[in-house]
Every structure is written in C-alpha cells, then in structure tokens.
From TrEMBL:
Source species: Jiulongibacter sediminis
Presence of keyword Ion transport: no
Any GO BP: protein-heme linkage
Compartment list: Membrane
UniProt keyword annotations, A-Z: Cytochrome c-type biogenesis, Heme, Iron, Membrane, Metal-binding
Protein name per Swiss-Prot or TrEMBL: Cytochrome C biogenesis protein
Keyword Glycoprotein: no
Recorded GO CC terms: plasma membrane
Gene Ontology molecular-function annotations: heme binding
Amino acid sequence: MKKSHIIALAVIAVAVAMIISTVGDASTYSDFGEAKRMAEDGNSNAVHVVGELKKDGMGNITGMVYEPSVDPNRFEFMMIDSLQNESKVVFNKPKPQDLERSEKVVVVGSMNLENQYFEAEQILLKCPSKYNNEGLEVEETAMIENE
C-alpha cells in the first residue's frame, strides 16, 4: 500500500469516529411526557423541550419563582410544551434576562423523577424583538441627478 492510501484511510477513520461521537451526544426535541418516559426508562440524555411560559387568563405570567437574596442560582417557572403538557422547570443558574418578553422558550435538560420537575441545564429564548421589524421606520429620499 502506498503512504497516501494509508493516510487517506486514517483520515476517513478519524472522520467516522468524530461523526459517531457527535451523534451520540446530540439531544432530541421532545415534550415533557416523553422526557418523563425517558427518565423512567433510565435514559438520562438531555432533550430539548419547546414551549411557552404559563400565563393566566389576563396574559400575565404565573408560577415564576426567583429570589436572588435567598439563592441567586435557583430559578423556577411553569412551562407548557407544544403538546399542552405543563411542568415545573428548575434552572440552577440565575434567571435569564428578558425571559418574560420571549415568545417561545426552549429548555434543555432532563426530567427529575424524584422531585417531579424538569431540570434545565440551558434555556434558549426566542424574543420577538429580534425577529420582527415592527417599529422600524423607513425613510425614503429622492435622488436628484445633476445633468
């Protein structure tokens, strides 16, 4: 075998190993019911759950608990996933800024069966101000050509 063939095989083997290792670590999109079933089966892999903050009839957010004077690294809130399953979410880090303004919330973590809540490792926010153009004013100007 030529040296170039051996090097090519080694590069391919490394690439395949990298792909397999990243696929094994990838988390999946799910809902609270599926996260609970996975935890009951002993699967502790992280899942992404997409949902919204729980609101009352007036549109006010309910169930949010954050007391930085007691524990600045514990934030709790109620979330409703895309299949309308409701769960308490505990995030053991400070409360994310502008959480109340977010349109959708994605929590990454797993279900804690002992305490019956979803334990989030990460919170991702989709804020409407980042994605819409409301409030932007466009000013048109006429160009005058010099002849």
